[in-house]
Amino acid sequence: MILGGIGAATYLPVLLVLGFSPRTTDIGYQPEQPVEFSHAVHVGEQGMDCRYCHTTVEDSSFAAIPPTQTCTNCHAPEGEGPGIHQASAKLEPVHESARTGEPIDWVKVHDMAGYAYFDHAAHVNKGIGCVTCHGRVDQMEEVYQAETMSMAWCIDCHREPEQHLRPLDKVTDMTWSPEDHGMTQEELGRELKELYNIHDVEYMTNCSTCHR
Ligand code: HEC
Ligand code: HEC
Ligand code: HEC
Ligand code: HEC
Ligand code: HEC
Fold first, then answer.
1. What residues are in contact with ligand 1 under a 6 Å CB criterion?
2. Across the 212 residues of the chain, what is the mean pLDDT of every consecutive 10-residue run?
3. What does the longest C-alpha to C-alpha distance in the chain come to?
4. Angle CA 75–40–95, to nearest 5
């Protein structure tokens, strides 16, 4: 019991310190990446869907970063068929990775603390769009963190999810608006909340929903 008491006394302060470290609250955090890969070009201009690369968002807690093979579908190295901008120096690290089998060392942008549990599938399959949490990725030359991803931010939405719900076939759409359906977000959100059978506010804001 004494050991338990000491554990509880240190756990909370440690959480408080970790929770406010700049890494987890910095809007705009934008680490340099090993390849000048642009979402603005691939999504904004080429119109690619998020799920072409982030294949697991609908099925798992984690949104997979694509393997080099996904890139070489279009950017094959010399001698392995046609590749878009094959001679570009910007693609050298991609070709190098394809030749050696060493994965590209992408730097994580979002890094939530391990003591909170997040699940992509739970959100994407209930009509929360990527843009709601990640901002206009289709306009980003380099990805940055668009929201605080703090506990208060999570809970704000968990209290009133109807403010953000959208049709399931629009979750990767960056420009969708409820007015496309001739409704306000409030009206549509209430309908969808019922349809998707969203948990009540008590469950959604319970500590153990996110701290398991
Ligand atoms: C052509 C492949 C491709 C497509 C399409 C794509 N992404 Fe990405 N995405 C990547 C790669 C590669 C990275 C890792 C490098 C980086 O952060 O730029 C990444 C990183 C990210 C990150 C940051 C991950 C982290 O480290 O925290 C987010 C968020 C993201 N993508 C969201 C999206 C969204 C939303 C869409 C659709 C609107 C999308 N992506 C479409 C390839 C893609
Ligand atoms: C479906 C095809 C497709 C896939 C898959 C794809 N790209 Fe591209 N990428 C393009 C096109 C098309 C362009 C050129 C756009 C332009 O020039 O306007 C391009 C341009 C680029 C450029 C800029 C090259 C230069 O010299 O300007 C880089 C770097 C790049 N892609 C990296 C990647 C990476 C890394 C991946 C994998 C995560 C990837 N691409 C996946 C189609 C693709
Ligand atoms: C409800 C908010 C929310 C939605 C909706 C959401 N994400 Fe995320 N995303 C997050 C959070 C929070 C993290 C950080 C998770 C972590 O660090 O453990 C994250 C991380 C990521 C990452 C980095 C890899 C990972 O899983 O940690 C990628 C890539 C990504 N998201 C892409 C997407 C795409 C694509 C969509 C839409 C199909 C999407 N996200 C929808 C909140 C969201
Ligand atoms: C924009 C709204 C929104 C934001 C932001 C958001 N969520 Fe959610 N979250 C939802 C909705 C809607 C559901 C689905 C609830 C359901 O299935 O009844 C959900 C479900 C969950 C679940 C699964 C609950 C279960 O047991 O089914 C977890 C865990 C969760 N969210 C954690 C988080 C965390 C952690 C954050 C912040 C990093 C976060 N959420 C941010 C809207 C949001
Ligand atoms: C909707 C999800 C969610 C719920 C519900 C939730 N938390 Fe959190 N909590 C988080 C996230 C996300 C973080 C921050 C993780 C990070 O900064 O990387 C966090 C951080 C914390 C921290 C660290 C300090 C801080 O404020 O950042 C403490 C302590 C904490 N939570 C306790 C609780 C308690 C007690 C409850 C119940 C009253 C609760 N949480 C309910 C998601 C949640």
1. 33, 37, 39, 42-43, 48, 50, 52-54, 65-66, 106, 108-110, 130, 134, 137-138, 143, 172, 174
2. 53 55 69 95 98 97 96 95 94 96 95 93 98 98 94 97 97 96 95 97 97 93
3. 68
4. 20
